[in-house]
Amino acid sequence: MSKAIAQQAHLASTVLKTLSDEQRSLALYQIKQGLEAAKEDILAANRKDMELAETNKLSASLIKRLDLSKNGKFDSMCDGVLDVSNLEDPLNRVTLATELDDGLTLTRLTCPVGVLLIIFESRPEVIANITALAIKSGNAAILKGGKESLHTFQAMAKVINKVLEDTAVPQNAIQLISTREEVGDLLKQDKYIDLVIPRGSNELVRNIKENTKIPVLGHADGICSIYVDKAADLAKACRIIVDAKTNYPAGCNAVETVLFHSQLVQDGSHEKVLQALREAGVTCHLSSELFKDQPQSVLAQESDFSREFLSLDVAVKSVATVEEAILHINEHSSKHTDCIVTEDKATAEKFLAGIDSAGVYWNCSTRFADGFRYGFGTEVGISTNKIHARGPVGLEGLVCYYYQLRGNGQVAGDYKGAGGTRVFKHKKLNI
Amino acid sequence: MSKAIAQQAHLASTVLKTLSDEQRSLALYQIKQGLEAAKEDILAANRKDMELAETNKLSASLIKRLDLSKNGKFDSMCDGVLDVSNLEDPLNRVTLATELDDGLTLTRLTCPVGVLLIIFESRPEVIANITALAIKSGNAAILKGGKESLHTFQAMAKVINKVLEDTAVPQNAIQLISTREEVGDLLKQDKYIDLVIPRGSNELVRNIKENTKIPVLGHADGICSIYVDKAADLAKACRIIVDAKTNYPAGCNAVETVLFHSQLVQDGSHEKVLQALREAGVTCHLSSELFKDQPQSVLAQESDFSREFLSLDVAVKSVATVEEAILHINEHSSKHTDCIVTEDKATAEKFLAGIDSAGVYWNCSTRFADGFRYGFGTEVGISTNKIHARGPVGLEGLVCYYYQLRGNGQVAGDYKGAGGTRVFKHKKLNI
Which residue numbers delimit the Aldehyde dehydrogenase domain (chains A, B) (predicted)? Predict the structure, then answer.
């Protein structure tokens, strides 16, 4: 069953990759219209999920994430599909062109990755985001939602499947799998599935990474750090750190560790930042050299510096130099997003070059690590991988490339290194 | 032990990534000089490996690959290091720049992947190639050679380690592991090692892929196909297919499957190609519709169409249309390099867009799939991955990217979507 789903997705992907931008974008436009037309049905299904969530006493924050009816969420979901369809085509961009020899031309073009398996929890609007990103980037997608949003998911799946019937996009390009199918079996289909994108809890992501040979794009932990340099503007430091910690503490781009230059600790000016955090309701886990018995202060454990709190808690310690800050972050952070607060450009440049993370910031909140804020329209997730796509992943992170070589009967044996005498020209062409 | 090696490599990588192109290139120049100065010692060690190989009755082709002394191999190895040092710097290239808002600027820059673990068999000159590519691209590398080239490997390692002492490149950036350490333990160091690159037999690659959570770049099989269209120039087809099969049958870019349009079979013109193959000593494994009892012809098994022969054998069948050829190749090829021979541009474009492989060729030999021939100087291998690097992998395949965000105290909470009212400008900047 899982094999058939994956194989159908692969076949659909080989058709989808040959469609024009117009064909892919038109299908998205039709999906947007279809969703809008079915608004009442989808919201009715959503209410059923909400009722079940309340009956099952799920957490208030989870129920809030499930709800599609509030704050214009449904309409902005539909608008999001249109936004993606209006983005520049990420496919068939020529990124390298070389004349190897007379009449033998090499080009490198962007192309879809192939088949994506996307596994997500709760938030049902993700279905529309991901469907849009997948079709626009020419990738077939198998979507597997969480059981909490099952009814909403099924109602939206029905619309999307129906709409695709009348478009150039093969129907199997988007397959919405309800919870009864086993994810475990899909994770074994490495012949047909090219990339797995999990969106959800650390446990979900870690579990998927442990159980598949298919490349996984995403992140388990978001352990972001902010280093407050001796040359920091402390007012900026307060604003940035309070925003990074409290704007959305459950977000992966929230700050979890704050490092102070020891000079700030010696003259007591770090207290201004700690005070601002306490006033915002944050509990500071202070390392021993900083610890004083104050309200909302606890003595930090060593493990707090490798911990994603996802709550109004932050680990705090002092370092002697920017180099020590860089070493600490490269060892403890999850390579997501880290920031320096300083007015000293040379120190900032050292930090920007030395940190080994997907995002390195200077004097601004780590909360900016987000596809919408980066101007990508939307994102399929944030990657802490060190290869392929890093940071917020939009359309560009969903494409790879391939090489075309166009000749006129050329054979390798005529060239030096393979038995012949001809020498390659390797002339760079304008793209 | 393995953990310490990996950790040291990681630490070295965080220094190496901050060095200038001049510092990295100068180190390569010094390595080249060091190798040249030690030519006699290295060739003496190489003779020891050759003698052992003869005593152990290794195959003639393996002994030939071991030999560094013939055909100017040693000198071209040294020149290769210099060639890489003279290539354009692949690091710190700005590939995206967006003003998110006044004074809040996002840039995306290329950066090293981090730590590479490179495992290779026999050919000792690979050490110099890979050391050059790793240092130039700012990556630390752990190199593990095969036991057949142990003495050569140790002699070269001694030189490289000694030379690095006097350069800006940390000594631990290149660690050469002799065969006594266990690869298995290194494959578990996924906290510190970012990418594994195996170069060797299918068994080696498959074994590594089975035994690590670290991304693996490379290919196990090279099953390349050539489709001869009804509008093919048969003289070109003969030249291309004979070169692709016989120029180096053990190469991963050699052709293993030939598909003929059925019209060519009906009028018997495919016989011209088969005859040329037979004259070149090739055994044709013909599917039943083509099979005639002729010399050097055998009836193909179904499995022959998913087989990397690595010998003077080729699987041959007929297809009714170019679409059928594309379907066959997308299902059976190893996504390495596939080719169409035709004079019809529309058919060629359909094939070029429809094939799901790292290289898709029109009227030229699959043997061109090679980093040197593509103009990359040299390569660390050929990737059939669908994400990150595909095809021949040179410097560009050894870099990833990261985002810098430079602000002046901006916080997310001031912007729409995070509680505030400001709207992002998302102004594209010239790169």
Answer: 4-279
